[in-house]
Protein 1
Amino acid sequence: MRSLFKLVKSLHPSEKRYVNLKLQSNKSNSLLHSYFETLQNQNEYDFEFIADKYSKTSPKVLKNSLRNLYSNVLKYLRSYNANSHDESVLADMLRDVRILQDKSMFDEAGKLNKRLLKQSSTLEYFYYEKEAIRNKWNLSHLKGELSHDFTDEIEESFSEVIEKELEISKININYRRAVTLYYEYFFYERKEETKQMLIKLADSIKNQGMARLKSAKSMMSSYEILAMGSIIQGDILAHHNVRKDQLKLLLTSEVFEKDYLSQLLVLSNLFTYLKSVKSIKILKDYMQYMKSYFLPLVEKNADGVLTEKYYDIYFQNQVHIQNWYLNNEVINQLLEEFKAVSKKEFKRNTLLLSRVYLSFAQLLILSGDYKQALRHLIEYQSLSLDKKNSTNFVDSELHLLMLYHLMGKQDVFDKGFETIKRKARIEVIAFNDDQNILFDVFHSIYKGEKLGTIDYNGKKSWLKIYIDVLSGISLKEAVKVQFDSSKFLHLPEEKTFMEWLKKI
């Protein structure tokens, strides 16, 4: 029952509390509750351990009980999430309309059905909208109030819904094709043919225009296709503008009113362009807006995916901002925030947690706080032991070497370099092009060779800084060159968009 173990370990704290209470509330479930607690305490699934612990129960009966527990956990999760999903609410309303209709309470059924029709139409749940239209005709039929005009009205309503459904279906076919092409290009092989096919799909959306679309869900999928098209062409400004239009839709359409995760992710996409053009003051404004809008939602839903993504985006971008300012007071404040958050919201997501540790380590090196940087690098590596061949882990190894060099720990540097060299030789790790450049410089230092001019024109600011420092430039000066606030772009149009956001 590895599936049961995975399900139990995936539960957010609030879900875990709810399932615990449900299992405890029924005496017949006392043994299931005990199994549930045992699984919670396991780091790896171990059936033999469970079998030994409950040795009075035969393995066959135990396996059946675990299957039963799996079904119960899923049932309780359905119950826990029932009130938080619009579709569940609509399903309950539809059942209630049918019950009232069967009881010949036609007026009551009609009133509730009117609400069902309005709500399902607004939220674009077309199955429930069609069922509500069907109920409307049936109720009129049962009350003996049918007319040709009324039936024509019903048929027209059906046609409008079916038209929207067909529109979404056609666009989603292209959306699925676009996503497939996107993944093929970026994660498998960068074929020009694949690129052109995706561009063609994006251009067809662009040429037809958004105004023709009747459905907000169609528009959402169309924006995603346009966004992928702009990314594959390397047009970050076009991508930025698409995401702004998409964010407007998410914040103004009732369909997406409660889709906070999509709102957050689309907002965070705007930050890429701002960082690329060094519009850091504007980025600060966006971050302030993000905090004011999403933090109250996060505090109400402290256990969810929304919370994890919010803090991931928040800390990653705040760290980036501080690369430019290196305000020790603000950095320490962020570190305290992160310390508090990592104990709760991030605790179960080691991937996000480790990534933030690495970002902070980079920032602390640049700020000259080597001791704290070392602690954060060690924390990152302890959380990433299963990803020792990843790009980020190799980055952390190189950061450590840089740190030992800056701290004047030559013996530790030499040992660390020998270890990395051995790992590379036996192909435990592999360097990308950027990492190779830095590794070669470290190799020269290890051999005691005098360094000549080292050219690096890549996109990694921290790498450029390290190379400058290793070439003899002071850390403070190297950082100042890379993060020069005089290069900030002000972008008045972004100010205008921010003003609009704050009014929503």
Protein 2
Amino acid sequence: MNKRFLYGFSGGKTLYISTRGNIEKQTSAEVIALGMVPTGGLFVPENIPEVNWQDYKDLDYANLAYNIMKLYLQDLPAENIASAVKVYSDGRFNGYNPVPLVDVGSYGFLELWHGPTAAFKDMALQVLPHLLTSSIRTLGLDSEVLILTATSGDTGKAALEGFKDVSGTRIVVFYPAGGVSHVQERQMTTTDGRNTHVVAVNGNFDQCQTAVKKVFASDELRKKFNESNKILSSANSINWGRLLPQIVYYFWAYLQTVAQGKINAGEKINIVVPTGNFGNILAAYYAKRMGLPIANLICASNKNNVLTDFFHCGIYNSNRPFYLTYSPSMDILISSNFERFIFEMTGRDGEKVSSLFTRLATEGIFEVDSITLEKCRQNMIAGWAQESSVLESINIVYKEHGYVLDPHTAVGWKVYMDYREKNDDDTYTVITSTASPFKFAETVLLALKGGDNKNYDPWLALNELSDMTGWEIPTGLKKLQSMPVRHNNKCDPEKIASYVLAFA
């Protein structure tokens, strides 16, 4: 692919509105700086630009990212966006192709985990710090930015790695104690950087996320931070600046599918996404809205199958047991980005969305009308995988194709197989591979060898999995065991606000 830029998008600047209709229109700089709507709700573009994907077919990844992101960031200097996307070509992602599509016949795995932390979150979180600092400069502010992030595993380390030692920022990551893998926890707690803080929370991810959202919605806390010339922002996908770079790799997936001869130009593909907080599959939805030829979006859940149940009956009910599973990054019952999707499915009815998600926050449940439900079903298919099926899937794919799945990608593969069997659909399908299998080596070995995963030492498991499969351990994971733990803070969910206040 030739390295070139496509300048020349014309028209007015893209502005942003709230999913709850409770704030005036904002520029992209304001949206990225704020993270989420202070009074509740999420920012979405006022208009979704339509493009011709063929205009991008000669671009490398960095320039593809530039051209797509520029459509949504028209108030940021073009040179700042061009500088931000250099992360995809400066060596921090392995090789020329940062997101390879590995074909296994009638489907392919889109490997999103070749960045510094071996998870798909790197694709956005290596860019977000550049977008945030550019937004702050564009707004003419000299404030320090405090980044608050709740994580179910992967976002935490990716955000820490992206923001560490970035001038004018501090980052605090909250994760559920006992609710992430050994590798994920060690990745976070060993992070260096003068501006990084990591806190284990005595609760689950939903409790972490809810507490962080309450901080953003607190007039009192916001006032105190304003008085000390500090801005609160987020590295979660509630921040549009986090979500936007994820749209790019779906265009890249399609371009690779065509280039590999798997489809003819213009033919549609299916996309399968293992889903937790709904940001990754929402990015695919926006790519489709922009004109990318996508037939079906398939939302894959683990045993915490609140999304699957919603698509079946129209009721979103988080009042249910919370399960710790083999795919911990998907152990979520309140999917934040689902609000953006419902906003689109209701015809952008902010009043209705506000009512639904206020009820979710207070009662843990809401129900949509039949028209909205039908529109949801027209735009997305949902399924889920049992725990035993996750292990089986890892084993089958390795035996049949020599390909190693992490447990989250295994959820996606199983749901796709169920879908294909039921619908007899031979459309070429891209399954997003969201993390390196080495981040969950004990579970992968359990799937491949059997036994009890408690018998697998998390650090010996890395080498054993490498020896068994011939796959190399990602560079960022090789020395984790010997790295000193730098963060050992703990708190209860109800203490998160107080912890944050100490930074004001």
Protein 3
Amino acid sequence: MHSLATAIMANHDKAKRGIPPKEDFNAWYPAIVEIADLVDKRYPIKGMDVWRPYGWKAMRCIDNLTHQEMERTDHEEVRFPLLIPEDLLEKENRLVALLKRAREEGVDPSELRMDEDEAGFKKEVYWVRNAGENDLDVPMFLRPTSETAMYTMFPLWVRTHADLPLKTYQIVNTFRYETKQTRSFIRVREIHFFEAHTAHVDEECATRQIEEDLEIVSRLMEMMKLPFIMSKRPVWDTFPGAWYTIGIDVIMPNGRTLQVASVHHYKDQWARAFDLKYADENGEHQYCHQTTYGMSERLLGAVVGIHGDDNGLIFPPLVAPIQVVIMPVAAHKNPLVDEIVESVSQTLRESGFRIKIDNRDLRPGQKYWDWEIKGVPLRLEIGPRDVENGNAFAARRTGGKEPIPLDDITNQVRAQLDIVENELSNRSSAHLDGCVIRLMSLDTDIQEGHIYEVAFDGTDADAEVLEKTTGLVILGDSITPFDNEQPCIISGKMTTRRQHLARMY
């Protein structure tokens, strides 16, 4: 009877907090991003949310990890203008149209003439046509991505092979007129965007850059404890200006995939369009080979979606805006409580932890709810009894409570956060394993909430049959093929090509 009453009260408390059950993910997600103070969606432009301080701190934590990875791999940060003149977009559109047609016709792009066909981002950009009361001589647009802006400048920076590789990146806002239903962090019109752009002496060097990019993104996914798969996109889903594209997809709680990053190998296609050449060791001029690697605030959306629960967010320690909240309890009964709280806070801050002292004049239960909703990994309570015993009471957001000694507080907190990390990692792995199902026959009933793994080595026509029969989308070739040959689900031909079918955001 007691447990039933407790459960009823807990559900009542959640309802009061306005959090739908997470099993209803389409209701839970848009509610929690506002309830947890990540964004405010009341700004009068659809798809352009206002970042609340807590949400922006979370995004900055992710950005900091990205900066660290860029520093580790010798990328240099740049900052390009927001506005791009129309003639550069036209140049991009012609290139993209050319490459698309070459792919469709199965010929080398050099065999085709650059024409005026429209492609690329033209239908998605925001235009600027006036400056004050004056019409601009050349209309401009807000960047949807930065290839055209950057590659206009790269030929001025690259002269000889000694200038290569050129490895640059920036974290900026990009703008795309997204006409589908918007969703905070997942589908927006003003995008917090990371993009790395590189130039190399040849295709082989560019390919090594792709390998490095995949290592970087794997490390970031591990830091955020996200369940992900990497797939070389099929031809029809390759970025139009790329030789090939590798997409990195997180498997969300409802089984849908969310592309959080992409890596593109351009070969020398963009370099030819923008006349990006270098003098080799013999003085001969060669076209550069290029790559790009992009991510966005979808990373934060994935963290929210994967780790949250019915009670709110759960932040992995490395990206938590606040890693430890310290709560003095009954401080009026012992003046040493506040002193020790301040001392513990100072010690932990000096050790590099992100700390918050909650000394608000509120009931303890209300404080617990607040920090539970915000997903702080670790809560420390210090009261008169704890002072007497030389302990702090540690409560992990993933579950579990225990006293920890104050005289070793730094190591103890680090150990507690490691427990949280390990638990989130285990949950992520279990989610990935539980979502991915082998599809052996087209007669199989397709279930919601699953990713289907298939052996497939068919034609575009076979791919169309596969997608129409299942109602799913082919993500592409997994970068980890089968160890042994398997029969293609359509043709029966033996192959090691592992592919995934999913519903995508």
Protein 4
Amino acid sequence: MNLDTAIDTFLSPIADKISGIIFSSITIHGVKIEFLVALLMIAAFYFTIRTRFIGIWGFKHAIQLITKNYEHKEIRVKKKKGEVSAFQALTATISASAGIGNVAGSAAAVSIGGPGVIFWMILAGFFSMALKFGEVLLGLKFRKVNPDGTIAGGPMYYIEGALKNNKYIGKFAPHLSKIYAICCIFAMIGGWNLFQINAMTTQITEVTGGDKSFFANQSWLLGLIVAVITYFTIIGGIKAIGKFTSKVTPVMCTLYVLTAFAVCIYNIGHVPHTFALILKEAFHPKALAGGWMMCMLWGFRRAMFANESGLGTAPIAFSAVKTNNPVAQAFIAMLQPFVDTVIVGSATAFVIVVSGEYLHTSGIAGIELTSKAFGSVCPFFPILLTFMASCFVLSTMLCGSYYGIKAWNYLFGDTKLTTRTFQVIYCIFIIIGSAMNFKSIINLSDAFTLFLAVPNLIAVFMLSDIIMKELKRYCKKYNVGLFKNNEERENDEERLSGDSKIKV
């Protein structure tokens, strides 16, 4: 028995058991509805409705903010606390979510749920924007600035800081924050890096000869190489991660979407039929037990996992942004689920359907299905995909390590020793993940990641009034969106131009 087989034989049953517990469900009319997925769906719908569909009316404002078209003297004159720019934080969170989670995850969703999953993924991405807005706002509002200028933020801090005086769950707030930190550590160590490295090693092995590849049955070697690279990068902290992702993420996302577009152009004759098939299968799936409801659930599960909305991870990264305006950064954060789910995730799924490759697989298929779809156009495309996937994997694992470090330091103290300890453990699990079975990986990854939603959504729901209060105050002050000052509606264009621009 080789090392790859030994690792998988030992850990796969454990992974399946854990995912079975976390993905507890109830059956309604023959359809299994998973509690955690349902909770995330409810939260996304709730905040979308309460913010009056902020993903629509706030989208333009988010673009204006990230492109720095706005400037306001009240914000400009203040010294901004933080470590990274808004763009660096945005690219970091996009890197953490738009990579393999959509390259391999979207493929897995289509292989199980069929073409109709794409419709529900896009819809889930849209509803996720409001939820992302709320949790990032809280992360920035209740972040902690350390004496050395570094930032600590995320659900751990707004759970403890904002809920401690709550008459209903105040006394449980410290325990709830610790529960989130523990869940975050397990999610990053036992979920994110396992999923990412497994997809990467699978793709590299495939393009280098498959069963005849040098890495066949010894994928752990690739895991070791990536682990070493990851370790020497993450010791630089969020500044090093932000610099890396700000350069790599825009290029990789653009290149990936252009490659997907090339596949669609090659299959241009099938595009109209593909659109029709997606809409038809979204409500009347032929190959999926449970009908449209199961199709919807798989679409939402995949989308919520990919864009992290409701999980509390993005607030950890955005808390480090140099800003004194939490609401403005929350608007910017909404762009993350739009980019990774609506653009990158749907591009992956559409390519798989338009190429017809989804018809030639059985069971759960990951990045290998995406590779076949790309390869149906040009033999070079799978190699290009391998390069892009490798960059996505590295950037995602870098961001995942930062999330895990902040949770680890929250529990064990922010010292050099505690930080290095987590970094070593994190890198060891990269090696382990490279040798595990994909089915076990995706179930374990989804389970650990989605369980983050439990403590985070409790806090976000309980603090929803604070979110709305801050949003309304911001919109009235700067005359933005549906909550702006009604008396100043007629002066909209003037206020959004010239000297009254907003800079964050």
